[in-house]
Structure formats: structure tokens, C-alpha cells
Amino acid sequence: MLRTIEMYTNEYKDTTQKEIRKKKGQFFTPAEVSMRMAAVESEYPKNQWIRVLDPGAGNGILSFAVIDKLLRSGYKRLDITLIETDKEILPVLEYTITKIRQICESYHAECFIHYVDQNFILWESSYLYDIVICNPPYMKVRKDSVEATAMKTYVYGQPNLYGLFMAKAIELLCDNGQYIFITPRSWTSGKYFTKVRGFFFLMLNNRSTRGALLCIFSASLWGFTGTVGQFLFQEMGVSSKWLASNRMFAAGVLLLLYIYWRRGKEIFSIWKNKKDAKDMLLFSLIGMLFTQYGYFLAIGHSNAATATVLQYLAPVIIVIYISIRYHKMPSFFEFFAVLCALLGTFLLATHGNVKSLTISPLALFWGLVSAVALAFYTAFPKRLLQKYDTILLIAWGMFIGGFCTNFVAPFWRFEGVLNPVSIGCILFVILFGAMLPYLTFLYGVKYIGPTKSSLLASVEPLSSTVASVLWLHTHLEWIDYIGIGCIIATVFLLSIQPKKKEQTAVQ
């Protein structure tokens, strides 16, 4: 098959002047070299989804070679992204894509192929890749070109496009990934590649630090957003139902517009499959809607600190569900975490007195609803996450959840004081409580994985508590702090226990 692709490529070369191909930086990979490059190490779990990126796809011969190798090694779940902007070579690439689908079918493998017609240097991905394989374009570009401008941090002297491709691609490689490039030796010692070499070592050494900071930043914004919501409810008379509904709706619209700007009609891909569309609706209506709606209603009936902490009972609910579902006892870590969570909830709700309830019954109810919904929100979309970007699921979930709750609290029925302060707070809740932290958290997950990310996300109840006490002067007694500490300890216990390798969860 590689020979056939090579034959079609030669036909293209015969009809395209050498000067034109050179101007484009096109130097096609021979079949023998493709087979050698595709000799990837097969050390991934056989049931794992393998994500492959070919950022300079050309005729697609490298993608075909690596997919063929993975299929022969027993892998059945493949996700391939091919990026190519040259329309002249597209017929050959389409032929190769057809053959990739055929060979996947012959092996009874699940295969998702994404063709991207965008400049790779300007393109953004929501996740990292297990394998990045590329024969990049070899050509010098001007210092003021769009590529050099976008990657100016890595430009020293005369930029060459292949060096920029290398720097961009290393950003998209997962920690245990394989990075396969055809390059000249000049990048290893040439002065023009000084910053590229420095960036390689920087990425290898500082990836974890960058990811941790992004996760902490996101969790802090989420926590502070709850306090801003409490301020709107208590000081500006804004309806908690209205804010919960329209925060979701507005953030969903903005995120969908952002994805459409980046990826075009790909935003509608999830609705082309009936099962995926059904699961998306369930995720939106049960997971996203009640997580967000319940959280803000809990704040409205209590305060941001209490609502945030109650929502963090979700990991415990997941542990209990798994234990019942699969008829197995929880581990020591899990059992102790459940006890900590129950103790923390008891102290928050009763202050240690079984005969009294110190928070509103509605606050406790909506807090627990939010926790149950968050557990569903985290565990349910595992299959969808194997096929679609996390940000796409979040965007549609918020849009659908916000659209549905608008029948209860439509955006035109605003309740409360409308002034520059309240407008600013509402915009903060939408932009810095929904859009920005979701995007930054996803990038953090890409760098450090879901386990460490979930651990660092426990900053959220801490930031919410601190902001509530310092800004809104929320009164918390010493026993409240013990209860909060117990629930936060639960998150730490469930995060640090030994875990098997897992798929990234929606946050």
C-alpha cells in the first residue's frame, strides 16, 4: 500500500514543477523511510486510545505507515489528526485517508480521522498526543511572517519552518509520547536554532510546573467565582436561578464560538452519531445542568464556602457507586476518605449536635444535588472523551444546560440591582468563572494528567472559604473549619492513592 501511495505521489510530482514544490518546502518521504519511521515502540495498554498527530501530512504516507504498525501490534482504538493546507496534494491525501479507514475496518478497529486545513503553527489542540510523526516543510521564512511572529519566542536569526514545526510539536506531546521527525542535523548545533534547543530542554524540565500553576490558577478562579456569586445574591439581590442559568448559557455560546473559530464545523461532529448525541444530552441535562444549577442555589441558601465544600463530596459518591456497582470493598484510602467526608458534612450541617441543622435544609439539599451531579458529570462521559475534545463537551453541555434552565429563569427576566458593579460581577462570573478557568485547567491536565490535576483542584474550596471570610465577612465557627478540613482531606486522600492509568476526565 505504501508503494501505491508513493505512485500517486509521483504522479503529483510529475504534474507539479520542482521549483513550486521547493517553494512550498515539499520533500516527500519515500516508502522505505516511512516504514523505518513508523517502527514505534508498542508499550501502550492495548485497550488505550492512541492519539497520532501528523502536522505536515502531505500525502499521508507517514500516517498510514504508523497506523499499519499499530494495528499489526494489536491496537484497536486509534485517533489520527492530519494537518495539511496544500490543496494540490489533497487528492492523494484523501486517497490515503480512505485506505487508512479500510485497513482499520479489516482489523475491526475503532478509528477516528480528523483532517485539519489550518496552518499548523497557528493551530491549537485541546489535548496531547501519544505519537507525533512528521516530515516538516524545509524552507526559510521571513522574521515578520505569521509563523515566525506566532513563534517569536523561539526565533533567533533566520527562522526555518522545520524548526518552528519542531518547537510547536513538542508542546503537543504527552509525557510518555514518541516524537518522530525527519530533520537536518543543523538544529542540533546551528546558531539559528539556539532558542529551539533551549525550548526543548525547558519543556522537558518545566512541563509539570506549568501544568500545576495552570490548575491552581483555574481552581482559584472557580472558588472566587462562588464568592462573587454570593455577593450578587446578598448585596445586589440577583436571583441565584437567573445567574446559574445564564452563566451556563452565555459561557456555552462563547465557548462554541471559540471552537468554531478554531475548528469550524467540527463543533457539530458529536451530533452525527445517535448514541453520542444521546449521551451528550444526558451529560448536559444531568451532569452539567444540576452541577452548575445546584451549586449556585446552594450558595443562595447558604454561602460560597459551604456550597463549594459540599460539592466536593462528589469523589466520595463515585467511590460508593463503584463499590456497589462492582461489588467490591473500597481500599483503605477510599474507606478512610469516605469517613472524613461524612464527618466533615456532619460537622458543617449540625456543628456536632445531631438534634440541630445549622444550615438551611435547601442549602444542604442543593449542595448534595450538586455533588451527585458532579459525580455523574465526572464519571459518565468517559466514552465520549475517547472520541471528542473535552472543551467541546463542556461547551455543548453549558449551552444545552443554560438553554433548558432559561425556561425557568429566562435572561430577560433579570431580578436585582443593575449597575456597573453588578454588571461587572456578572461578566466576571461568565468570563473568569466559566470560560477562562475551563480552558486553562484543560491545558494544565494536558501537562500533568488528571490525577495531579484533581489534587490541585482542591484549592477551589480553600480559595472560596478565604474569599468569603475576608471579603464578605462570612462568619465561620471553629467547628466549620474542622468540617471543611475533613472534606478537603478527602480529596487529597483520593488523589494520592495509587491509581491505574486513566483517561482525562471533564472538569
Explain this structure.
- Strand 1, helix 4 and strand 2 (about 75-85) form a beta-alpha-beta unit.
- The two termini are about 40 Å apart.
- This protein has helices spanning about 1-15, 20-25, 30-35, 60-70, 90-105, 145-150, 160-170, 195-235, 240-265, 275-300, 305-310, 315-325, 330-350, 360-380, 380-385, 390-405, 420-455, 460-470, 480-495; strands at about 50-55, 75-85, 110-115, 130-135, 175-180.
- Mean pLDDT is about 75; it is low at about 500-505.
- A 5-stranded parallel sheet has the order 3-2-1-4-5, with helices on both faces.
- Helices cover about 60% and strands about 5% of the residues.
- The longest helix has about 40 residues, at about 195-235.
- The chain folds into 2 domains: about 1-190, Rossmann fold (3-Layer(aba) Sandwich), CATH 3.40.50.150; about 210-320 and about 360-470, no CATH class.
- By secondary structure, it is α/β, with parallel strands linked by helices.
- Helix 3 crosses helix 4, helix 10 (about 275-300) packs antiparallel against helix 14 (about 360-380) and helix 11 packs antiparallel against helix 18 (about 460-470).
Brief sketch in words of this structure:
The protein has 507 residues and is of the alpha/beta class. It has 19 helices and 5 strands.
Distance between the termini: 42 Å
Characterize the overall form.
elongated
Stretches where pLDDT falls below 50 for ≥5 residues? 498-507
- Can you count the helices? 19
- The total beta strand count reads 5
Order of helices and strands: HHHEHEHEEHHEHHHHHHHHHHHH
Strand content: 5-15%
> What is the rounded Rg?
26 Å
Number of domains: 2
Helix and strand composition category: alpha/beta
Helix content: 55-70%
What is the typical, i.e. mean, pLDDT? 77
Biggest sheet layout? 5 strands, parallel
In order across it, which strands form the biggest sheet? 3-2-1-4-5
